[in-house]
Specification:
Largest interface: A-B, 45 and 45 residues
Oligomer: homotetramer
Distance between the termini of chain A: 24 Å
CATH class of the largest domain in chain A: Alpha Beta
CATH superfamily of the largest domain in chain A: NAD(P)-binding Rossmann-like Domain
Radius of gyration of chain A: 20 Å
Chain lengths: 340, 340, 340, 340
Amino acid sequence: MIAMTVRVGILGATGYTALELLKILVHHPEVEVTSLTTRQEDRPHVSSVHPQFHKVLDLHLENLGPSELAERCDCVFGCLPHAASASVIPEMLEAGMKVVDLSADYRLNDPAVYAQWYGADHPDAERMKTTIYGLPELFREGIAEAQLVANPGCYPTGVSLSLAPLLKNGFIRPDGIIADCKSGVSGAGRTPKLGTLYPECNESFAAYGVGTHRHMPEIEQNLSVYSGKAVSVIFTPHLVPMDRGILSTCYAIPDKDASEKELLALLEETYANEPFVRVRSDLPATKHVAGTNFCDITVRRVKDRVLTISCIDNLIKGASGAAVQNFNLMYGFAETTALL
Amino acid sequence: MIAMTVRVGILGATGYTALELLKILVHHPEVEVTSLTTRQEDRPHVSSVHPQFHKVLDLHLENLGPSELAERCDCVFGCLPHAASASVIPEMLEAGMKVVDLSADYRLNDPAVYAQWYGADHPDAERMKTTIYGLPELFREGIAEAQLVANPGCYPTGVSLSLAPLLKNGFIRPDGIIADCKSGVSGAGRTPKLGTLYPECNESFAAYGVGTHRHMPEIEQNLSVYSGKAVSVIFTPHLVPMDRGILSTCYAIPDKDASEKELLALLEETYANEPFVRVRSDLPATKHVAGTNFCDITVRRVKDRVLTISCIDNLIKGASGAAVQNFNLMYGFAETTALL
Amino acid sequence: MIAMTVRVGILGATGYTALELLKILVHHPEVEVTSLTTRQEDRPHVSSVHPQFHKVLDLHLENLGPSELAERCDCVFGCLPHAASASVIPEMLEAGMKVVDLSADYRLNDPAVYAQWYGADHPDAERMKTTIYGLPELFREGIAEAQLVANPGCYPTGVSLSLAPLLKNGFIRPDGIIADCKSGVSGAGRTPKLGTLYPECNESFAAYGVGTHRHMPEIEQNLSVYSGKAVSVIFTPHLVPMDRGILSTCYAIPDKDASEKELLALLEETYANEPFVRVRSDLPATKHVAGTNFCDITVRRVKDRVLTISCIDNLIKGASGAAVQNFNLMYGFAETTALL
Amino acid sequence: MIAMTVRVGILGATGYTALELLKILVHHPEVEVTSLTTRQEDRPHVSSVHPQFHKVLDLHLENLGPSELAERCDCVFGCLPHAASASVIPEMLEAGMKVVDLSADYRLNDPAVYAQWYGADHPDAERMKTTIYGLPELFREGIAEAQLVANPGCYPTGVSLSLAPLLKNGFIRPDGIIADCKSGVSGAGRTPKLGTLYPECNESFAAYGVGTHRHMPEIEQNLSVYSGKAVSVIFTPHLVPMDRGILSTCYAIPDKDASEKELLALLEETYANEPFVRVRSDLPATKHVAGTNFCDITVRRVKDRVLTISCIDNLIKGASGAAVQNFNLMYGFAETTALL
C-alpha cells in the first residue's frame, strides 16, 4: 500500500472545537491540513486567531467555497453552527469530499423530531434520515464506508456510553431516566455572550435549558436505537466554572436485580476492547480525562436506583477527538491514531 | 427594656464558618464578640488566623474551658467538628450559656440513625432526641425558647426548603426523590487535604460520597417531620471549582396533577412572608445569592417529573447566616438583624 | 437638623460598578435610590439586569434625560463609559444635581494630556481643569464643597496610596518608578468581548496595554500633585483569572537611607487616622480585602530598591466604595457610612 | 545502530512534576518506564496515585534503593525535594545510572551561595560545583556528555531566556533588573498546605517570598555566567489562581540605544534555531503555552526601560518537558522527541 497523506480542511476554524481539532491533526501522521475556512474576508493567519499556533502552523483562514475546497481537500471537518452546516455540506459531498460534521445537523434521523427541537424544517431531510451517527463504541458498523458522519454531541456521548449497555441488557427501565449533566464553559462556544463572560460564570453554578436542551432527543435516539426500546430521558445541563469537561450523573430504575459488582462487570465486559472507554470502580473526575479522548465510567447502586457517572473532555471525546476517531475509521487508519 | 448587648463566643474559630460568622457578628448591633477558642496554646491574634480582620477586630484565639467561657459569654456558636462538639456542649449548657451548634451533632433526633451514619453511639443521646433543628422557615416554633439549637447542614437547607412545601401539600411522592447537589470547595473545610488542594479541584468536577454522605438522613428527617410522611431521598453531592455556593437540582414524582405555574404559586405562597427565601420563575445561580442569607428557589415540570432548583451560599444560609438567624430568634431580635 | 434622605440616581446602571454601587446604597441609611438609567427603551426591571436584586429592589431601568433625573434625584453617580459621561454631566450639574463621576472624564486636569491619551479633545475642558480628584486619603480637602467629584481609577487608587507618602517625604526618587499591577476580570467591564470570555481568560495570565494604558498619566498626576515633584511611572497592567481585586507591586529607587521598619512606620503614621487604609507588615492578598473598601499596604526593602505592595477590591475601593466615600463627604455624613 | 530502549525510573513519583513527566514519557518512542519510587511501603498502583493513568500504565510505586533501581534503570529522573535529592543522587551515579535532577540541589555552582540560601552546607559540594545546568538554549554544550544534569527551576527558565540575549549583547545593564513573576499554583507542589488549599488561593492574588525566594540567586547565576557580567536581579514571585503557567515581566535599564524593533530582532535571531523558544511581537499569555514545552517571549520599550515578557508552562518547559529535553540530548535522540 502506498502511504497517502489525506488532505484535510476545517470549515469554520475560529472556535474551540476547531482549535482542538487542529491540535490533534498537526500530530496526525497521515494528515496534511491544507485549508481553514472563515466567513471573514481578510484572510487572518491562524496564529492571530489561535495564538497557540505561532510558529507551529503557517496557514491563513480563508473564505472558501466547495469547489475551492475540493481542489485542496480530500476530507473536511465541519465546525459550523447548526443550520449553517447543513446548508453547505451537500455541496461538499457532491464535490467528492468526505465529511465529518461536528454540528448537530445530521445527528437526528427523524425530520419531525428535528423540526420540533430546532424550530425549522431540515434543509437536507432525506440525507439526515440515513446519516450514520459517529459514536463508534455503539455504532461502529457503517462508519468505515460512510462519506458523511454526524459527530455526536458532547452531552449525548457521556450519557449514552454509560447507560446504553445497562438498557440493552435489561438492567434498567427505559423510562424514568434522569441525566443530570455538568459542563465546562468551552461547551458554550467562542462567540462573546454575556452569559459566558468571565465575571458572570466564574464563581457561579447554574442550570440552563432545563427541559428544552436539544441534546435531549439526541440522547433518546441513541439509547432507543441501541437498546431497541423507546427510551425517555429527562436531561438537565448545568454550567461549571471551568474550561473543559463534562460529568454526567444518571439515575435509572432497575429492571432486574443486580448488584453494583454485577453492573460494573457488565460495563467492563462491554467495553473490554474499546480503547477510549475506561470503566473504573472509583469515582471519575473530569480532570482525569482532560486533554484525552477517554470516557471514564462507573456505576453505583443507591437505594432503589442505579446510578452511572461518566466523564469526558467535552472538546475531545465530546467533539474533536471523536471526530478524528471517526476520520480514522473512515480512512482505515488505526482508530487510536493521534489520539493516544 | 434596657438594651443589653449579648456577649458572644465562637468555639473553634479557625475555619471558614467561624470566619463568616465573625464577619456578620462584628456588624450585629446587639452583639459583642468576647471570645474565640482554639486548641492551640499560643494565643494567636485573630488577624494572624484570618487576615481579613487586621485593624478590624482585636482579639486573640484562646484555649478556653467552659467556666472561662461562661464568665465572658452569654451565648456561644459551636464551629467544632462533629463529635468534638457534643463532647463540650453539655458543659456549656450547664454553665448557663445558650448554644447555636453548627456541627452535625444535634441535628438528627434518632440515636440509632446517628449511630448508623456516624459510626459511633451519640455521647449525649437524650439531648439529641429533643434538640430543635434550627431551620426557621420549616421549624420556627420552639427556636425562641431553646437553649440549644442545632444549626442545619448546608445541603439539607437548600434541598429541604425546595421540596418541603411540595411534599406537605401532596404534590410529589415521598419516595423516588433524587437530590443532585453541587457545592463550592469551602464546604470541605479549612483543614489542608489533598482532595481540596487547588490544583486537584480547580478545573475539575466530581461526585463524592455517593450514597454515603451524612446529609442524606438529615434531609430525610427534615422532610419526613415536616410533611408527616416517610420520605426517601437519594442524595449525590458534587464538588464545584468555586469558593462558595450550593445548587441543588431535585427530581420528584408528581403525586397529583399540577402545572408549573401552580407549583410556583404554591412555593410563592408558602414563603411569602419569609425574608430569606426568594421564589423565582427564572433559573437561580449561586452567584446571585453569594454573600447573602437568601435561598433562591424555582420549580419546573419536565415530562413525568417535578424539578426544583435551589441556591444558597453554603457558608451563609448554609451555615453562619442561618446561625445568626437562629440567634436572633433565640434573643428576640428582629430575625433579619445583621443579615440584610 | 432634620434628617433628609438623599435621593440618588445611577447613570448607566447595567454594569459591574453600578451593581456594586447599588449593593452599598440599598444599605445606606441616608439614601433612597430613585432612578437607574439605561439607553435601552424597554424599561427592564433591575432584577432582570442584576438578578441579585430579586425581591430586594423594585425599580426599573429607564432612559431618562437630565430634567427627568433632576426631578427625582439630588445626586447622581455616573457609571457611563468615558466620553459618554462628559457629554451628559454638564447638564446634570446645571440642573442642580451633585455628581460623583466614576468614568475617567474628569480625572485628568490637563486637557493636553487628556487629548494625548484619549485621542480626542475634552468636550468640557474648562471644568476638567479644576474638578477635584476624589481620593480622600490624598485630596480630602475640597471634596465636601464640590458639586462634581471625579472618582479615581482602580489602578491609580492602589498605586497612589502606596507610593504617595514615600514620595512626599523624600524616601524614593520620582523617576524610575515601576508599577506592575494585576487585576481581576471585572475591571474590564460587563460588555461581552472575546478577551474576557471565560475560556479565554480562565487558566491564563497575561499583560495588556503595556505602555499605553490610560491609568499611567492618572497615576503620574496624582503622585506629582501630592508630592510636588514631576513623577514618572512605568505602569504595566495584567489580567488575573479571578472576579475582583487588584494587587500592585511597585518598585522605586531610594532617595535617602531608610530601613524597612522606618518606611513601614512612615506609612503607619501617614494613615493612622484613615479608616480605609490598613498598613500591614505581612504580605497583603486581594482575598483579604475582597468585598471591602480597604486598601492594604506593605513596604519592603530588597537590594537597592524600595517595594510597595498594595491590594484593593477593584469594584469597591477601586470604584463604587470610593464613590460612596466621596458621596458621604459631599453630604456631611460620616465618611464610613455604609462602608464598614 | 541498534535501537535500544532506555529504561527509565522516576524518584519521588507522587507529585505534579512526576505526573507530567510520566505523561510525556509514556509517549516517548525510545523509553520504557520501569520504576516509580515512593517512601510509602504499601506499593500503591500508579493509577491510585495519579488516576489519569487508569488502564494506561500498569506500574506500582515502590520504595526502591539504588541497587534495585540500577538493575531496572539506565536513567532516573529525580523529583525529590531539595536536600533529599542530593542525599541519594551520588549513589545513583555510582551505580552507573544517568540522572536528570529536577530538584534545586545541583543548580547552583557555588557552595557558599547554596549555604546562604538553603540554610545548610551542601552534602555533595564538590559535584555541585561542576554540575551542568540543563537550560539547553543557553548552555547546550556539555549536556550530551553529562551523567548528571541539573534541571532548571521554573522561574529561572522564563526570566533567563528573555533577558540573557539582551545582557550578553550589551543592550541592558546588569544591575537594576526587576523580575516580577506570576505562577500558577501547581508550582507549589502536591503536599497539602493551608496556603495552597483551594478556598485560600482561588479568587486571590498575592506575592510571596519577597526578597527571599531561592530562585533569585539561580537567575543571577544563569545570567552572569551567560553574559560574563555580575548580574543583580530583584525577583518577586506571585501566586495566580490557575493550575499552571508562569508569566515573567522583567524591567531593565538600557545600556545602549535600541528600538523595540531592534530588540525584537535580536531575540528573533538568537532563538531562530531553537525549537522551543518562540519570539513574538504580540503579548504572550500563559494559556497559549499551556501543555507545551514552548517559551514565548516578547520585548517592549517603555519610557526609560526595556521590558521583557515571557510565558512558560511551569510543569513542562519549567520542569518535566525541560527534563525530557535534557534526556534527549544526553542520549542523542532528537531534542524534540516526545515534546512536539
